[in-house]
Amino acid sequence: MDLLLLEKTLIGLFFAVTVATIVSKLRGRKFKLPPGPIPVPIFGNWLQVGDDLNHRNLTDYAKRLGDIFLLRMGQRNLVVVSSPELAKEVLHTQGVEFGSRTRNVVFDIFTGKGQDMVFTVYGEHWRKMRRIMTVPFFTNKVVQQYRHGWEAEIAAVVDDVRSNPAAATEGIVLRRRLQLMMYNNMYRIMFDRRFEREDDPLFVKLKSLNGERSRLAQSFEYNYGDFIPILRPLLKGYLKICKEVKEKRFQLFKDYFVDERKKLGSTKPVDNDGLKCAIDHILEAQQKGEISEDNVLYIVENINVAAIETTLWSVEWGIAELVNHPQIQKRLRDEIDAVVGPGVQITEPDTHKLPYLQAVIKETLRLRMAIPLLVPHMNLHEAKLGGYDIPAESKILVNAWWLANNPATWRNPEEFRPERFLEEESKVEANGNDFRYLPFGVGRRSCPGIILALPILGVTLGRLVQNFEMLPPPGQERIDTSEKGGQFSLHILKHSTIVLKPRSL
Ligand code: HEM
């Protein structure tokens, strides 16, 4: 209530100067800015456009304002790009110019003002972090080292579901078990660790702190203090909570994972059949003086957020679409039975021989893109884009969801139809070979985790479909696929109950 009152007072206060300032700005303007609604001082367009700048709302603006438009959100310039040509310009042709990241007041806290890799500006630090992270995380060798682990994790999910009679009758919230699996998939890579059960206290703590971090970061409720510096004091309470969550999280990463691994290292240099896990590589870089201890923890933080949630959301969306499209689910099951053989559990190498499985994954990532606006880009210096001047340090959003869902370039894009990737779009890959389809971005800041995400999605969805018939809960025709968008995330609103009827193999 207080906040609303303050907003109203401020609106009143500045209304008088608004018109005069606009006129003087327009007269004295030397920039050719992208089109956009006329801003008012202090607030810019914020009062007109509101907080919820999700991919669908931004698509509506693009339809009115064009493929490039500018919103002034208080002190922040927000440029939204909505065509494959302009996406190419931002991500490829001018990839260096637009290769930085913006952070808002909350991301400043969680990333220590860019001491991490995902949210740091384009430059030396980013290059070094990306290089250091490549060998431990982003090569095919990592896939080969850990694929057996991922196969074991989904096998454990299948066993747990099979031994739970409720799964086949009233159904279960499968997502909970898959979340444990996804943590295990990534914690095996990072620390050679896994959690046995959903109620493991360390897992519960970790999951809750990561969840808090995501909720706090993706929420729109702190926008006002980020956009309008004079309102920032009102955010003090929010930012204090962010700082506390950050401190607790980092302490947990350090005490229970990084330091534990260090201890192990001093007695037993390498584990896991003589192979190093990711943190061993990262700690080596620290010992060589390439990065600090804080940087090590920021790498752990980045993987927790960038890898686990995104892949989990995509698995969840994939399951939801398969439940709601039984014919597609059946076709996928038939393909696996035909290629791998009935009763033979699919493995990572099999996923490459299953075009329909690949098409189902691509279609899931197209219609239900986990990061529909990519991670915000930024130009450090003034730049040109689409014939317009872009002020330095603008936040650049590429509406990748719209590029992949625009009826002008896709046939019936609102339909979940994997066949499109075998028929009219058979040449389109998830690696950014077509600027209409960028679920992982493309270019310098594209997702390096694609190399892990696709095989994990393949074995997870494949094993579920070959072992179970997945259905909506009794009395429901389909499951609810309402979306929940955040600052740049898209996940399913309700974690649905799903019935899983075991197939007799
Ligand atoms: C289905 C799962 C995933 C999706 C849809 C996804 C998508 C994305 C997208 C759209 C970006 C931003 C691209 C841009 O701004 O141009 C990104 C960045 C990133 N992703 Fe992923 N990702 C996934 C899984 C993963 C995994 C498994 C990892 C790590 C193991 C990972 C690590 C990263 C990192 C480190 C960045 C930042 C790259 C940079 O700024 O240089 N992602 N991801």
TrEMBL record:
Keywords: Heme, Iron, Metal-binding, Monooxygenase, Oxidoreductase. Heme binds at C447. It catalyses: (E)-cinnamate + reduced [NADPH--hemoprotein reductase] + O2 = (E)-4-coumarate + oxidized [NADPH--hemoprotein reductase] + H2O + H(+). Its cofactor is heme. It holds the Pfam family p450. Its EC number is 1.14.14.91. SUPFAM superfamilies: Cytochrome P450 (SSF48264). It comes from the Eukaryota. InterPro entries: Cyt_P450, Cyt_P450_CS, Cyt_P450_E_grp-I, Cyt_P450_sf. Pathway: Phenylpropanoid metabolism; trans-4-coumarate biosynthesis; trans-4-coumarate from trans-cinnamate: step 1/1. It is found in: Membrane. It is a single-pass membrane protein. One of its GO terms (biological process) is lignin metabolic process. The keyword Cell membrane does not apply. GO terms for cellular component: membrane. GO terms for molecular function: heme binding; iron ion binding; trans-cinnamate 4-monooxygenase activity. Belongs to the cytochrome P450 family. This is trans-cinnamate 4-monooxygenase. It comes from Erythranthe guttata.
